[in-house]
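Q: My collaborator sent me two sequences in one message, no labels, and asked for predicted structures for both. Can we handle them in order? The first one she listed is below.
A: Yes, handling them in the order given. First sequence, followed by its structure tokens:
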Amino acid sequence: MVDTVIVTPGATDAEEGWTSAVSWPAILAGGLAAVALSIILFTLGAGLGLSAVSPWSDRGISSDTAALGSGIYLIVVAVMSSAVGGYIAGRLRARWLGTHTDEIYFRDTAHGFLSWAVATVISAAFLASAATTITGGAGVAMAGNRGALQDRLNGYSDELLRPNFAASNGSANVSGGMSSNDQPRVQASDRTEVYRLLAKTQRGGSAMAQSDHDYLVQMVAARTGLSQADAEKRVNDISTDLKVSADKARKGAAHLAFWITASLLFGALAASLAATEGGGLRDGTWKYRR
């Protein structure tokens, strides 16, 4: 690497003082370009993802493959959009007169990093605003998440209290000896109680208390016509499914956080390197940096 200093005839220290070390217009331009390109690429990725998955078991890609492909694509989008933004920021920044090449190299790197930072902040604000608009507000979004959990727990409650029609043979009363007029009210009450027990376990993130487990087994046996052993097996199966679904959701959230972190780091690196190239081409000194 050859040390050079960019000198323009007639340039003085006073002229250099008037030139700011940070060209914010170039940084903003690079950040906006990165955001625009990332939106285009994310839209393309959504279309590709919807085309690759399928509700049919013998078609499309698996969920694990889709998750891996989405993470890799997230990094690719971050690198491409950040590199373009950093290059624009370096190419459009003001020319620093009478400045050592090492200092120019640092400033170009900083301009690329700042353009990435601007793009990241704008993207985060845009995505948050879009999510709020689509869901009709943060409260509605939270209600939607709660609704998904409620649907899952309601499904488990129905599965636990599903009558054993083969054992009843159409004649046995599986509602605990209640009259036909009381059956709907009692069944709804049972489902509500089962839902609360399952929700308490889900929120606590631990195994169901033994007292709740034994009570739930007795309720299932009394309301469904199952034997004590079959009722306990049904309760154990549902408890296992709850743990599996909770663990899967936890792992999915952790993997997404790792992919996002990796994409941000690679994006920052790509923007910084691209800005040095753009700045070098701007000054005509790129050949000295390679």
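Q: And the one she listed second?
A: Here it is, processed independently of the first:
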Amino acid sequence: MEDNEVWHYIIPFPLENEKRRLVWSILQSKVGKSLLMNMKIDKKIYQKDLIKNTAYSNKSIIEYLKRMVSADILEQGMEQVTTGKRKVRVRWYLPTNLGRWFILFLKPTEEIPPELVRETIEEIFQMYAQSIIEVCESFEIDVDVFCQILNKQRPKIKKST
């Protein structure tokens, strides 16, 4: 297999089995993928806007939003807003770091600001670097091996761009 045939995405998944199953159920669902595609990566989005902008039933949308919160893909909150003469409470959602990664994974790259891509990739790299160090410590592996691999790949990447 050539390098060009490899899918160049690394997707983090929760360690807990239940959360991992939730993530899979969300990604395998048209409703779940549609909601993720309609999320803003770095801003709150209101439940009413998600309901308005997707073609699924309110019940299905709310069920998938609950799953996403349970899977730590989204944070949720409530805020009070004034509409006309009355105050109402509205529910909002904000992607977590994990949620941002899934949204980036699903959205076309032209829809994502380059600075946000850079920030998210840095976050995910830090998360993986921390995991690699923990595994190295657990199995008494010299972490310098991974530093050498990264340094070897660097000239190859510069030449191909």
